[in-house]
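Ligand-bound model needed. S-adenosyl-L-homocysteine.
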Amino acid sequence: MTTMLGIGLDGRRVVLVGGGSVTARRLRRFVDDGADLLVVAPELSPEVAQLVDDHYIMWRDRPVAADDLVGAWLVHTATGSADVDAQVVAWCDAQSTFCINAGGGSHGSARMTAQTRAGDVLVGVTSDAGVDPRRTARVSESIRALLESGQVSLRRVRESAAGHVALVGGGPGPVDLLTLRARRLLAEADVVVADRLGATAVLDELDPDVEVIHVGKAPDHHPVPQERINEIIVEHAAAGKRVVRLKGGDPFVYGRGGEEVTACLSAGVPVEVVPGTTSAISVPQAAGIPVTHRGTASSLHLINGQSGVTPATLASMKDDSVTTVLLMGVKSFPAIAERALAAGVPADRPVAFVESGHTEHQRTTRTTLAAAAEAARRAGVRNPAVIVVGEVAKVDLLLPATQDPAPASVWSQDLTG
Ligand code: SAH
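Prediction:
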């Protein structure tokens, strides 16, 4: 029978007998563990030689002898000779040192696990029966996939003083645009502080006892002021909770993520930021608009429509090699367009309004600068929308004029007609 243990190898002597490919693989793992490594082998494969070189690992270039194992906490043998491996196992048994026999046939007194990690949680897979590394690797891969799916709660049960805040970018909406890191942090979270936009459907998948605090603006509700949001995340983290501040798009693109980082740091709360897919780029993309299309636009100017027009924005709109992207701009766009026309931006500069990108309500309205205000009014364009001004917004640039892509659609060209 086997008991699985987590053992700390940091600074402890681990001896690897043999210089082939199995040794190379294990060396990488033990190097990461911080072990005090010794390799004993008459010859090294180029791979092992490289590792020995790169990590200043001790190498005794001769056949193994019993005294090589003195002082070892753990020995790994993979010499290519079953007899030598068996001899190493016997020496280890005699001196009460655990030994992994990777030489095939029988295990030694210890066995490797196929290991997978989700944050600080490690899962190892091994077997009581004979050695079958491909099998354990496959089981381990399945477990990794499960952990990455976010379906396994990774929440700490024991109270800890170590609270933590993660500002997590949730992308423009669909849960499958969340990153693996975002999913893991959500699976670890005690408290989730959520906006209105972004991957809010993921909240339904959380453990029922995860505290969800909505701070975004909902119809008929005022949003929680930013100062209060800062307090909420800091207070919970200071109480030892793992806090995820789930934000739409990317935390650092008009997300006030910078202020939240500052609030955490000045309260002495550890904070990390997980990037998300920003609507500024991904919402135009969903409508078939590449914000920098080779030969059409070589740079990108991003603005918050609420903060008015600056000379830089007017210059961008005038320049046909620049794409101007406006977030939060639905209400102010008519005034912005008027200013731009007055400043000499061409009246036929293409404009696209992309509403609710990447959701089932996605809709694109294509127009020109001169006609934009009226077109938006007639179509009833509403928030959330990304507005693209520039040649990349031209009808027909990539897709036929008739094809308004559905979210997550696969684009294809109909060559039969
Ligand atoms: N941090 C976010 C932006 C926050 S500002 C990001 O990186 O995406 C909020 C604005 O983002 C909205 O007013 C709208 O302009 C845009 N937006 C967010 N999600 C959107 C979506 N699914 N479709 C269209 N626009 C969206």
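Residues 172-173, 197, 247-250, 253-255, 278-280, 283, 327-328, 354, 356-359, 383-386 surround S-adenosyl-L-homocysteine (CB under 6 Å).
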